[in-house]
Amino acid sequence: MSAATSSSVTWIACLLVLTGCLLVSPGSTPQAQQAIPDSIAAPNTRPVMTVHAAGAQIYECTPVADGRRGWRFREPIAALFVNGVTAGRHFAGPSWQLTDGALIVARAAASAPGATGEDVPWLKLAVVEGRASGQLAAVTVIQRINTRGGTLTGPCDTVGALRPVPYSSDYVFLAPSR
């Protein structure tokens, strides 16, 4: 990716994060937890932290087949909030970095549909690496729940074009039960 493209994506993503923060309101906290679908359940775990994310899912226009193009998910970018206070950021990896320096990287392990076709799926993510201390040191699973927005459909015209789509969700950090 060129420096100009990277700069444009960063600027757009920052604008969307700020817009999302305004839409979510400064006092936003994680939504009341709905029933967790069996496909992303994490038995024998306990929640250690829940954060609310507001930002964008970034998509890239790529060749798919027979000269056609389509949108492919590229990366998330979001601010993380606890009780309306910035707690960190979420970005490619997928990774979560908190203001205290904790960093967790995970991979998708299972999914469940979002509430509507416009909402990205709910996910169960398995932690694969990180540097965390305190309560996050024991985290082995992250659930993405209560998603709103974030999906992109429709044609793309230019290979390499990037499009951010606003989304929000809650992320629940889980550790093994004691």
Number of domains: 1
Computed CA radius of gyration, to the nearest angstrom: 16 Å
The count of helical stretches stands at: 1
Oligomer: single chain
Mean pLDDT: 86
Instruction: Please state the overall shape, judged from the principal axes of the Cα atoms.
Output: globular
Order of helices and strands: HEEEEEEEE
Q: How many beta-strand runs?
A: 8
Task: Give the helix proportion (percent range).
Answer: 10-25%
Distance between the termini: 46 Å
Low-confidence stretches: 1-8, 13-31
- Please state the structural category: mainly beta
Strand order of the largest sheet: 1-2-3-4-5-6-7-8
What fraction of the residues are assigned to beta strands by DSSP?
Answer: over 45%
The major β-sheet equals: 8 strands, antiparallel, barrel
